[in-house]
Write a structure and sequence with these properties.
This protein is of the alpha/beta class. It is built from 8 helices and 7 strands; from the N terminus they run βαβααββαβαβααβα. Strand 3 and strand 4 form a beta hairpin.
Length: 210
Amino acid sequence: MIITIGRQLGSGGRDIGKKLSVLMGLEYYDREILGITARESGLSRHLFEEADEQLRKGFSAGILGPRFPFLSEGMAGFGGLSNEMLFRIQSDVIRDLAAKHSCVFIGRCADYILRDRADCFSVFISAGDGDRVKRILGYGDKDLSVEKVRDLMERVDKKRAAFYNYYTNKTWGSASSYHVCINSSVFGIDGTVSLLKDMAAKIPQPPLPS
């Protein structure tokens, strides 16, 4: 069983993924993939962390400017490697992990990367703006105000969408891109976990090798 989770910022998607992994006995992969990718590729972890951090900082500080560096296929990104190449390397690692374990993947276009697997259950988590603001403020960053959080949410989601849409040729957050889109504000975090567990159990599993 493979579960992939895309999510709006502040929707609780990461918490839902963690709880699902514990409840269903699945491995959990989020930023852990960076270290694994570095080990498997023989490249410095710093390369992958720097690329990931640039994207994360760009969400909150806007330092990526009007252009998204990860949208330029031929440009050198980090350590002389293009962002396209880093994405391909990370994609290979995600496929390898999915072949070895039942697991939950958070973001990183995993639903697209694993699209040929019959046992992959793809989910997108959204939430009401009020709940998202409350959750982000609850992270304890004293420099954030409600206005800053709303601006942050808009910019993060735009950049996540740009990244996803470019690499997958699908539409981030659109019902047609996933098996299930669910609003965690309606069901709550634990309720959403329970619903997704029941849904995942209904995904047909490929036969075990004889």
